[in-house]
Amino acid sequence: MIKGFKEFITRGNVIDLAVAVVIGAAFSAIIGKIVDGFITPLIGVLFQLGDLNKWVWVVPTLSGGKATFMLGAIIGAIINFLAVALIVYFVFVYPMNRFKERQAAKAGVPESDDEPVLTEQQLLTQIRDLLEKQNS
Q: Where are the membrane-spanning stretches (predicted)?
């Protein structure tokens, strides 16, 4: 059990995922402050709210109280998510994809979109069929 855990944790993709989570959290904090400090007030000014977080919808409840729906906070969270996704894509994903394309072109690896990637089972079936044909 310990050996399996050691293999799992030392795999490259697990370490990459951990690094991505840490960097994502850091970028999320930075982008969150930019959205809260600049974009949200800007949208609030455009809609004459002063601040997007002040955009609420108050609905009377059946018991005579009030339920407050914080529409501005929800919209702010959506804007925050889209801003983080946009920044991560253009700062990390797009440049890395371009880098990989350039490295593949330098190495002479052809881009093959025509051939589907075979699963292990499909590949083994093809090998079995070729061996049967060869033996007969």
A: 21-47, 67-92
Give whole-number Cα distances, 84 to 24, 26, 63, 101, in Å. Answer: 8, 10, 40, 24
pLDDT, tens only, 51-109? 677 788 999 999 999 999 998 888 878 887 888 788 878 887 899 889 988 888 888 76
d(CA 111, CA 118): 16
Predicted TM-score (pTM) of the model is: 0.54
Domains of the chain: 2-135 (1.10.1200.120)
Ranges of H-type helices in the chain: 2-10, 12-34, 40-46, 71-88, 94-107, 120-135
Q: Contact, 11 vs 18, CB < 8 A?
A: no
